[in-house]
Amino acid sequence: MLPRSGCKDLVSPCIVARMASLRFTCAVFVLTITLASAYVEQLDDTFKDIRKKELWLVEFYAPWCAYCKTFEPVWFEVGAELKSMGSDVNVGMIDCTSHTSVASELGIHGYPTIKLFKRDKVFSYNGPRQKADIIEFVNRVTGPAVRAIPNQQMFQHVMSHNDILFVYIGGSSPLKEKYVKTASELIVYLSFYSALENVLPKAVTLQEVPSVVVFKDGTFFTYNEEQHGDLTSWVNRERFPTYTKLDSYTLYAMGDSGKLVAMAVENEKKPSEESIRLKTLIETAASEYKDHFSRDFQFGHMEENSYLNGLVLGEVKAPCIIVLNLSNDGYYMPNQPVHSIQDLLSFLDGILEGKVQQLGGNGFLQRIKRTFHDAKTTLTTMFQTAPGWTCVIIGLPVGIVGMIIYATCTVVPVGDDEEEESKQKGTKVVAQKENKKNSAAKKED
Known about the structure:
With 445 residues, the chain is an alpha/beta fold. Helices cover 52% and strands 17% of the residues. It has a six-stranded mixed beta sheet with strand order 11-13-12-14-15-16. Strands 1-3-2-4-5 form a five-stranded mixed beta sheet, covered by helices on one side.
């Protein structure tokens, strides 16, 4: 058995080595972030003058925003990645609390907000805050609105990399002009392609050419103007999988689809058999009753509740089923427990027939309630993440207003000062006359 001093001599080098390794790892991490941040430019109010001259990808942030701080390393990686790719896109970030004129002109209300500036056009990014997704967005928006697929091999490659694929089949036509216009409007959401008929897989047979086709859910659908109406509206409705995992970004993007969103809400902290059962019911309605509901409903499941809590102005108790009307911030809840697929179908049909009452909405009173709820949520988050900065933001204007009110209440009008001075002079004159009379009376005595 080794003496105690020997054990100390053996352990100490191990601890020292681990500490040295930890310091080295931290140094490498800091160095990496520092190098990456070199490719992101801190912008100011002069950005308004230069934004139309070059391509810019800009993050608008606030120092007190906790998510902005978490997102910062990802943003630096985006800048470094675009630079290494030789991209012409400049990457920057603007503190909206210091440069309020820029934020006001561009309508920045939430943080972090990401926008790409391409000459006179401004594209907003509302997807996941991940490097790969942002890079894909940049490449899509800065490239041509419609990309040509030259052969079958490339067609297979494109299909394997896109869950939703819109393709124009054919040569020049009025339909292609509409397709290019639609692509220019919706390029922020997904890519658009064109190809000749001989490029299609053999399993794909079209009744007529030219056509616009969407490939999704393991099959394909062809656009029919008489049946589907406006092309842009049809693309908006079909640009999501029939059943998918939902989050706040996806729901925001679905706002233009015109569809109701039926979902199973899960408890992300406590998964249960009930959650699985409700998800299965929603997925069954999406797949087996697609012809009946696909035009009016989008189906999915969601794990996070913060977005839904803000919508209903309370806590959504999971697991449950809820249907959202994203066009007016309304929602529907089943009046009775959903035990079977027939219960779910009856609930969905009841919504379409107007038999189920919509809750929430964007009425005047509801907007006031939502404003207070959002303000309360924002202030709570600010106090939790940056209490000092929040006190400054709230305390400074409150202090200024208080000083103005105090000054207004305590100020003495100029006319009152003159009147008071005149009274004081009159009192002095009267007193002097009285003194003279008294003096004269004494002399007479």
